[in-house]
Input
Amino acid sequence: MKNIVVFTLLLSAIFTACSDQLNVSPITEKEASNFYHTEIEIEEAVNATYATLQFTGLYNLNLPVLGEIPSDNTFDEVPANDGGNYGQLDEFTTITSNSIITGTWKDSYIGIQRANTVLNRIEEVDFADESVKSARDGEMRFIRALLYFNLVRIYGDIPLVTEETTDPSAYFGQGRAASAEVYNQILQDLETAVGELPAQSDRPGRVVRSAAQTLLAKVQLTLNDFQSARSNLESVVSSGIYSLLDDPARVFAADNEWNAEIIFAVQFASGINGNTEGSDAFQQFSPSGTINGAKGHNLPTRSFYSLYDANDLRKTAYVSVTADGVPFSTKYKQPITSPNDGGSDWIVLRYADVLLMLAEAENELNNPEQAGEYLNLVRSRAGLAPITANDQAGLREAIALERRLELIGEGHRWFDLIRTGKAVSTMNDWFAEQNINIVINTDDLLMPVPQGQIDTDPTLRQNPGY
Output
């Protein structure tokens, strides 16, 4: 693998359509130097950038896993499966050659290179409608920011590249940019995107303004900028575009994609293009023995499942259990074709998360009454009584619990623990309660830089503890 391993890959311009709904024919064997001169070519490159989000290293498998398995939410049923790569994340024994860590790094930088190429070239291209051109610029900034946000939370300091890479060797020796610099770029991209993106799109799957505002607020919460996060989240609420569905089971229903709760999702489709547009999640995240090829990765823990009240509608809408009592997520549905051709979109941002983030921001700004109102909107939809906690500490715990129960399996819990400073204490307490002989420290909060990257460019220093 090359340093910034992915940047050479785009130059082959082997693009695939993001989804059947975006409906753009694949491009093959086009030289980058002779491409991206017309609106049609830019549109094809934009869709190729969306397509990277479907990669295994991103929202097909790895990002949901990296956001859950290290936490107390999910576990790996058979750690020896798949070379132990998932089990290492679960047991905090991750090695630098772990394929999940390597794949996420590689696929993220492929997406970043594709976004950079569009952003570096779109300005010189004439569009029939300037508002479309502005929207495409905003979409690419959103995707680049999303990928960098994931990278910086997973690896810490990372190479930061915002220019199209035509000569990968030019990036050897630059090392890793400080996390603060990466976050500044993320904020800049998202703030620009908010001003460029339309409020709504006539094609499901496109990034819209509320998606940029929601992601920007999530970044601001991570940086403890609660005032700015509240402002952006209030804009999403006041847009009037989104709402909680009455029945939580309908949020993830196969016949109800892009409902009123979905702000941004990565699209997958079963039975399309020779079964190449589906997701592996259903097969990989099903308990062993339940379907052909089931791996038992990323299953909810029994201790998590016990947190649901008996009358919580999410207990059956979001999670079920096998005859042997093994919990599993029902948020992704069984494919109509083969087990590894799942058609469920992967929801990255949704309205329930907006309300819970607003509750958190209000609570940190010492507004417990407003925090409770937002929190109770989510609880009411789940069939639960209003929360009784009204002090800041009590609400913190209540909001954290509600995030677990509402967002299980969506890739948030581990990052929530890290940003609130509770990862080490929470996990050590959980391991002790489960009689698991594992103790972690702050060195375990970041994943290792892939060994292949360091072997190629020694200026990429490894994270402590690896």
Observations:
- The mean pLDDT is 91.
